[in-house]
Amino acid sequence: MPIADIPVFVFVVVVIVVSLLSNVVVLICFLYNQEIRKQVPGLFILNLTFCNLFLTVSTMPLTLVGLINKGNPGSSGFCQTVGFLDTFLTTNSMLSMGALSIDRWVAVVFPLSYHSRIRHRDAVIALAYTWIHSLSFATVATCLSWVGYHHLYASCTLCNARASDTQTQFIIYTVVLHSLTFLLTLIVLCVTYLKVLKVARFHCKRIDVITMQTLLLLVDIHPSVRQRCLDEQRQRRQRATKKISTFIGTFVVCFSPYVITRIVEILTPGHISPHWGVLSKCLAYSKAACDPFVYSLLRNQYRKTCSDLANKILKRRSFNSSVRRVENGRTNDTNNTKPIVKGLAIA
């Protein structure tokens, strides 16, 4: 493996480890906490978690093999299967993010009618659409032999081996695929989260007005208390902006380089560096490691669940260790009394 590929190799290994551990933790929290299972967003997060896990164990390791061997990591049929999974799982995860953003928009903009607008049945219908959408594109690519090992990305993914015969059809397919997955999801994310931010800022302004009126009435209030209230106002506004920026920013940073590289590649083939191609693919992989923190583990409900699980495990370990100490103490006492009993018997 060339020296230039070593940083990318290490980056993929880190992404695999972080993605595997974090998504497993999210899955454990979902199974452990009944309240998370009852919530509608939990279904979207569960679907996103499964997509990330399967993507981590199926396609990412083969990219490592492709970087080492500089070639197809397996047979043609095996690589086509992995390419099918790569297209299906990536598309499914993007659409799941769009469904999550719509759910958050309804929850913030229509809080009183949220439970009547978004029910488990509606979530199942939305997930069914994401699966049908993803399976359709992945199946079409597989049936037309448009999946295989791509040297530019060192992975089993979309690849037109019969470039001279079906180049035009492959270009149309690629443009439509990314338009109805990446572009569609990006538009949904921007529209919904910006509306959420608008509502959040409106509520923050109302709270700020009430706070300022209260501060004006309290003439004898200490300056430090007044300053603390003003700081809390500023932090409240910044917190909402940071969350929305994180949702949209991680999606753009992770997926846009790969999608743009794909479009440029089919329009002007041979003008892209292989190092950039692999790096753009690895950035797309990194979204699987970011999603658990962006959508789950940094939320109070998941953090509390993780804390409860950790405390439960630690208490069980301390209880088992105390039981062992008691049993060892009893064994030692029994061994110490045996010589005394024998001596008394002899006497």
From TrEMBL:
Gene3D superfamilies cross-referenced by the UniProt entry: Rhodopsin 7-helix transmembrane proteins
Keywords recorded for this protein, A-Z: Cell membrane, Disulfide bond, G-protein coupled receptor, Membrane, Receptor, Transducer, Transmembrane, Transmembrane helix
Name listed for the protein in its UniProt record: G-protein coupled receptor 26
InterPro entries: GPC_Orphan_Receptors, GPCR_Rhodpsn, GPCR_Rhodpsn_7TM
Family matches, as PROSITE patterns: G_PROTEIN_RECEP_F1_2
Annotated Gene Ontology cellular component terms: plasma membrane
Record-annotated G-protein coupled receptors family 1 profile domain positions: 22-295
A GO MF label: G protein-coupled receptor activity
Topology term for the membrane: Multi-pass membrane protein
Keyword Transmembrane: yes
Sequence intervals crossing the membrane: 6-32, 44-68, 94-114, 126-150, 170-196, 244-264
